[in-house]
Model the fold of this input.
Amino acid sequence: MNPIPIIHFGLGPIGQEIGRAAANEPRVTSVGAVDIAPELQEFTLNQVCDADLPALPIVPSLAQVQAPAGAVVLQATVSKLEQARNQLMAAIARGYHVVSTCEELVWPWEDHPQLARELDEAARKAGVTLLGVGVNPGMVMDTLPALVSRLVNAIERVHVARFVDVLERRVPLQEKNGLGKDPAWVQAQLDQGAMGHVGLKDSVWMLAAGLGWELDAVAVESRALVAQEGFESGLGWVAAGQCKGVRQEAQGLIAGDPRITMELVMEAGVAGGTRDELFITGDQTLHMRLTGIHGDKATAAIVINQALRIPAMPPGLQTMLTAPLAPKSQYET
Done:
């Protein structure tokens, strides 16, 4: 099997991590690199990623990349689907598949139905596939619970919890979760939708689809967490009384009953440490605890792994629920 040609689109911290993951995967080969940041365009792909990659120039536009139709764009640029649209349409127009870290692309059918249809129709017409991926949304709070749920009949409830000690993560994530800010200001930002995790509600809708449930609504509550004592962070000293993170909860409701509950805690020094937990209640009660996931490395891994699988997927806007478990070469002759 010839290596799959890939194009790196977005070379911020996640994009660089994807580059390093690509360097360790012989089944892909880098053929292009795109980023709009002028300071990155002064370097080559291997220099920016500090990895054994080709010395490709970093260009500001996908139109400047010379790659064959059927190449896979690894998009790591924005979280909002509206902002990602033009980049996705440019890739489709050139006959490229796309594996994207855009959180709102993981399950866009509820909040962005018109845009989802537009992208789906364009991709089908071009014969290419679009796939939104990630740790969360995209795997631990939706795809994985949907898969594990096949072990249980007569499911009554599903509870998914993700706890992340943001002191173990990069500074931008600490900033995104309000460390060191006035909790009242953070709460106002959360209430306005200007802060907080993107995609939690989408994970609820996605898991419901995997369970075959039709939800009436998804309710989300977000709360700023207040430090009881001071501590050092990547952003400097956080004093008692300042924000130390964010807790969000989303409920998938059927006839007013929260059949799906998702809890996401992004907190400095979170009690019990970084972990993921899953509870499924039905004819059995399952409890799964998963530790050791590093968000950035796991995101890069899933992007590369799905780049290997996207040629096996039908054209159009697909999701991780429709993604094959095996790469194409392992089951096609």
The radius of gyration is 20 Å. The chain has ten helices and 14 strands.
